[in-house]
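A note on notation is needed here, since sequence and fold are reported together in a single record. The reader may check this reading against the record printed directly beneath this paragraph.
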Amino acid sequence: MAFVQFSKVSLAFGDRDILKDVSVNLQSGTKSALTGANGAGKSTLIKIMAGLVEPDSGERIAQKDSRIAYLPQSGLVHSGCSLKEEADKAFQWGYDIQKKADEIGELLKSNPSNSDKLAVEHSELIARLEESGWYRREMLSESVLLGLGFSRSDFEKRTEEFSGGWQMRIALAKALMCGPDILLLDEPTNYLDIEARNWLEKFLSDFKGGFLLVSHDRYFLDHTVNIVYELFGGDLKRYPGNFTHYEEVRKVELESLIAEYEKQQQEIHHLEEFINRFGYKATKAAQAQERQKMLDKILENKIEIPENLKKIHFAFPEAPHSGQIVLTLENVCKNYDGGPNVINSLNLVVEKNERLVVAGRNGAGKSTLLRILAGVDSNYSGTVKYGAGVDVGYFSQDSAEKICGNQTILEYLEEHCPLELIPKMRDMLGAFLFRGDDVFKSINVLSGGEKSRIALLELLLRPVNLLILDEPTNHLDMHSKDVLLDALKDFGGTVIFVSHDRGFIEDLSTKVLELHPGLSREFPGDYKYYMQRLEDEANGLAGGSSSLVQSETARIQPKSETKLSWEEQKKQDAEKRKLVKEVERLEKEILDAEEKKESLEAEMGRPEVYSNGEKAKSVQKKIDEICLLLDELNARWEEAAEKIQ
């Protein structure tokens, strides 16, 4: 069994302990996640596991010939060949084995006297290649690339033509294809859309090796891991179970920790108060010194609350009043440079307080539609009409480009913040990953991701009643997403958004607009209902791709009718699923009965049975009973099967 083991690994940067006697054992079948606050040292620990960073102490043991694949968060760039050729580099280990086998083959020809030993070695190498699936590498390469969102037309495209996000998808594809025993993935979902995330989720579920990954996608973690490691204050603690279970257990632990924390804070406060009051009085100097020793001892073992588990809540400014109809689209079409329509004849009505998620694969026109709705893109045909009193707030990744100036983060946001929210500004900045002295950073020195978080927070502080959000969670950790999600749920206006975070979508959406190039469908229900519909379509239980219609043919219903048709559709879908299960159950019973009948008829053909009157009579009675049962089962099967049609 392949494994990589770390025992009592420690690492410090200056006087800060990043890792303190950390031990981890990853082996085949391990499905684990690594969590912790930003800056806790997660990426550093993974780099140590990958053998890229040397710890100060401890040991790393890996089984001989174990292949360990590592994917960093960002920064990988590929060039100089086609995508197909770059993907093939993932199989270099196989080419190396093949080369060695070929060399041994030549030795066998020229040195037959030592043929036994060489033949065994040659046979072992060829067996390794066969067992590893190396001879099926082209099929595997195609499957992984398509699963991660590349098209077949991309295969011959030069790698340098791909953008940064797609460069990281190439790196992820190579990590998955190289036949690893252990996978170390640092934020593998950062650049993936929902379809690619779903594919990766399935890949990891079926993966026979072991993996450790860092991700801020709770849904993804819940469906891929059964062990969670938390890194906090240099210590690593193991929690069996999925991520939600870890959070539940940690919540109970945290309640106790907070009680101890508050008690300790009170004690620190009292000691500091005494020292400040009497430290300079000769009569109290000895007592003050004693209190100082007590304080120093407490501070050596100061209790800290993990930032990623602190719960912060904030509310939007009250949304201005708007009419019931917030947005109406009539026959909206959009293309680029005279090409085919990306958005074609789209009709849509968005009502007050809806949370509409726009779904679809990359290139379906999601961001394009949001730019049109926000008024950023006016180069389209058709009509976009806002309802009475609608005030729009729009966020996209481009919003970061507008953030500039020499002010500190705190000064910039306080300038754009309603007066009543200024006292909460430090907490809100903390929720968006600006903690401690970070709030005094100058705007001009911030990274693109940091500016994006500032742009999002700035938008949320404005009194608007229609929020249009394109990937608002991209640069947020799990805790920040929770804060944003709670605020959006309580928001008194309407939200239209695009996101690749399935958990975020499921918790927020009340309606789905699905886009395909030139086509669209509305699903008047939440995202779970939408995904169930897609699954039913794939299984033939509901209209599939043939039911995709151009938006101009869609009939826009009042909200009450829409809700009724959704409930009726859900009921019909549930009945259909129930009937399918009944048909499958009856088919199994029919098969079992027919096998039993065949067995009895074979028994009747044996001389010791048909020559014995009593035995023959008994067996024939059983055959007659089975025939009656089959008649009944077949009648019930026909009845259920007809209802499905």
About this structure: The two ends are 50 Å apart (CA to CA). The first strand starts at residue 3 and ends at 13. The CA atoms of residues 376 and 393 lie 11 Å apart. Confidence is low (pLDDT under 50) at residues 544-564.
